[in-house]
């Protein structure tokens, strides 16, 4: 059996877990193994949703200390399930939580863990044979081809990656057998626990905005971002920035697009005075279209953009704002 | 407060990353080295904690002798002690890196006293395995939370509050000390090392510990750049005169 660690949002399968489920099914078919899932919630309807992905065995972990997300507790519970059910492998979404829980389980089980994988394949169907995988390094700056050898293979997969489709499989399983699992934490040290939680901001966020207007070194000051705020508002978008703008204190880190900031995939990304170093590029390359405004036609972002305007952002952006206002007024 | 901060020597890469002819590693002959952004913030946080709460901070790395350069950089930012856990040139597997750190921490703690706090970067800037800190914390039976952008220490009741930002909102964790934390960039703005700090770091003694390392279960075969569709951008115009064609395009895309 292969297991998927399923994350849920309000009782339904979370977006990233779809890719993990699709990978699990593909690998399980190659191995002739059953498709299983493990979840930390017993939401009604979850079994049916999982059956659509070909899942036939669902392990629901139930414990008062696991009801809320708890990194060590979830990792320990998963490690105990691995000891008891001995699956051939576990695949999780390469999210903050997916990577964290899998690393805790790996540490507790003495197993290796391959994170942030794009493709996973099985060369030989023997259980002991290594899996071949390609993982992202440095947020996607490099790809690493590697071989994972372990009695239980632990892998996290990126969603939106080329390869496995994220939709339910063509053939649903004939039904899901639900196993309730109660972990024991008697000998465990005191864990971290969540004591407060605030919901995210509603409305347009950097991660979900259809248009993102971003500024970098070329802006020159915090004040210059005022025009980007204005343009973003006119387009119903959000404002982002490069690492330079964060490090110079022009914008908060939460606005940063890039490897160590937010990764975005808007319909349109307007990069103003941003050169497009690798650190930034890996955060915005999934944008459907990129409009780059820069004085340097040779800047990396200019050679990768869909549209380019060669010029100083301080002249170009106010002119665009004026033109949009003129047309709206007319 | 006694704080340990762990850093990794990584190539400072710019636009494209040169690879060795056999494709198994980054060709670092013409590259400088640095510590990753998350870890630089962890170093800054360690320096600030000691400045506010007293005690001392130690920076530790697992790497070849050249990694002393990164230890000295961290020391120039205000870290008192440097420890290098020796390895051969080349990357060690995350399990081996974690085991080496655990051995070193046990040695240091047996001679001195327990570290109240161990700081890691949430993931390294190059390999990005996102697991070394968790493996170390588990071996030493300490709690750990990753992706942290705020640390509030309460020495009076030996706890810390850790703030994590997620797309869905903000989570605050409470951990008993001693604890470990995976730091994320944005927790602070790392300082530029002052001249006095750089002079002190240059002369500082660096302790070395030689551990026994074992290979891990994930074996790297080769590295390669991601495929990239070549694209010639459509130049919409120059300067302010580009406004009309830009807005035409925005209108065409249904965004105006």
UniProtKB/TrEMBL annotation, chain A:
InterPro entries: DHS-like_NAD/FAD-binding_dom, ETF_a/b_N, ETF_a/FixB, ETF_asu_C, Rossmann-like_a/b/a_fold
Boundaries of every Electron transfer flavoprotein alpha/beta-subunit N-terminal domain copy: 2-189
Subunit structure, interactors included: Heterodimer of an alpha and a beta subunit.
SMART domains per record: ETF (SM00893)
Lineage: Bacteria, Bacillati, Actinomycetota, Actinomycetes, Streptosporangiales
Coiled-coil spans in chain: none
Its job: The electron transfer flavoprotein serves as a specific electron acceptor for other dehydrogenases. It transfers the electrons to the main respiratory chain via ETF-ubiquinone oxidoreductase (ETF dehydrogenase).
Name recorded for this polypeptide: Electron transfer flavoprotein subunit alpha/FixB family protein
Family: Belongs to the ETF alpha-subunit/FixB family.
One Pfam family recorded for the sequence: ETF
Cofactors (names): FAD
Highest rank taxon of the organism: Bacteria
From TrEMBL, chain B:
Chain ranges of the Electron transfer flavoprotein alpha/beta-subunit N-terminal domain: 23-218
InterPro entries reported in the protein's UniProt record: ETF_a/b_N, ETF_b, Rossmann-like_a/b/a_fold
Domain of life: Bacteria
Xref: SMART domains: ETF (SM00893)
General function of this protein: The electron transfer flavoprotein serves as a specific electron acceptor for other dehydrogenases. It transfers the electrons to the main respiratory chain via ETF-ubiquinone oxidoreductase (ETF dehydrogenase).
Quaternary structure annotation from Swiss-Prot or TrEMBL: Heterodimer of an alpha and a beta subunit.
Protein name: Electron transfer flavoprotein alpha/beta-subunit N-terminal domain-containing protein
Organism for this UniProt entry: Lipingzhangella rawalii
């Amino acid at each position: 059996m292969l297991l998927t660690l399923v994350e849920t949002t309000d009782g339904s399968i979370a977006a990233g877990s779809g890719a993990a489920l699709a990978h699990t099914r593909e690998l399980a078919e190659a191995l002739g193994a059953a498709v299983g899932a493990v979840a930390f919630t017993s939401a009604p309807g979850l079994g049916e949703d999982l059956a659509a992905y070909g899942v036939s065995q669902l392990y629901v972990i139930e414990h008062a200390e696991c009801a809320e997300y708890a990194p060590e507790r979830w990792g320990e519970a998963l490690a105990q399930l691995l000891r008891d059910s001995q699956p051939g492998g576990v695949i999780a979404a390469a999210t903050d939580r997916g990577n964290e829980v899998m690393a805790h389980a790996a540490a507790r089980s003495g197993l290796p863990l391959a994170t942030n994988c794009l493709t996973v394949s099985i060369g030989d169907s023997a259980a002991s044979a290594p899996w071949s995988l390609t993982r992202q390094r440095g947020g996607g700056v490099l790809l690493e081809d590697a071989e994972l050898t372990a009695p239980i293979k632990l892998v996290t997969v990126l969603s939106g990656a080329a390869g496995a489709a994220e939709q339910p499989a063509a053939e649903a399983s004939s039904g899901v057998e639900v196993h309730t699992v109660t972990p024991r934490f008697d000998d465990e040290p005191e864990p971290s626990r969540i004591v407060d939680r605030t919901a995210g901001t509603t409305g347009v966020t950097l991660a979900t905005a259809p248009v993102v207007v971003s500024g970098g070194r070329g802006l020159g000051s915090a004040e210059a971002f005022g025009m980007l705020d204005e343009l973003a508002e006119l387009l119903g978008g959000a404002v982002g920035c490069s690492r330079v703008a964060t490090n110079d204190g022009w914008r908060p880190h939460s606005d940063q697009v890039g490897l160590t900031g937010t990764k975005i995939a808007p319909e349109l990304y307007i990069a103003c005075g941003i050169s497009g170093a690798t650190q930034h590029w890996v955060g915005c390359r999934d944008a459907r279209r990129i409009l780059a405004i820069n004085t340097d036609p040779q800047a990396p972002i200019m050679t990768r953009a869909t549209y380019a305007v060669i010029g100083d952002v301080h002249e170009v952006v106010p002119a665009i704002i004026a033109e949009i206002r003129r047309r709206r007024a007319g | 407060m006694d704080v340990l901060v762990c850093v990794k020597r990584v190539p400072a890469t710019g636009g494209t990353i040169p690879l060795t002819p056999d494709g198994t590693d980054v060709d670092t002959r013409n590259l400088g080295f640095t510590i990753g952004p998350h870890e630089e913030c962890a170093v800054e946080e360690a320096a600030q904690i000691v400045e506010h709460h007293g005690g001392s901070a130690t920076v530790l790395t697992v790497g070849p002798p050249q990694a002393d350069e990164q230890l000295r950089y961290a020391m120039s930012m205000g870290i008192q002690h440097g420890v290098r856990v020796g390895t051969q040139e080349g990357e060690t597997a995350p399990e081996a890196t974690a085991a080496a750190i655990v051995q070193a921490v046990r040695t240091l703690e047996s001679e001195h006293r327990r570290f109240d706090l161990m700081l890691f970067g949430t993931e390294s800037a190059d390999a990005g395995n996102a697991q070394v800190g968790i493996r170390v914390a588990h071996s030493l039976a300490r709690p750990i939370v990753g992706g942290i952008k705020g640390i509030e220490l309460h020495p009076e009741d030996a706890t810390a509050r850790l703030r994590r930002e997620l797309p869905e909102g903000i989570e605050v964790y409470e951990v008993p000390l001693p604890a470990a934390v995976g730091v994320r960039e944005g927790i602070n703005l790392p300082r530029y090392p002052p001249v006095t700090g750089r002079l002190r770091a240059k002369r500082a003694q660096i302790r070395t510990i030689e551990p026994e390392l074992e290979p891990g279960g994930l074996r790297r075969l080769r590295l390669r750049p991601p495929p990239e569709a070549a694209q010639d951008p459509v130049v919409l115009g120059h300067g302010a005169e580009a406004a009309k064609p830009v807005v035409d395009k925005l209108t065409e895309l249904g965004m105006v």
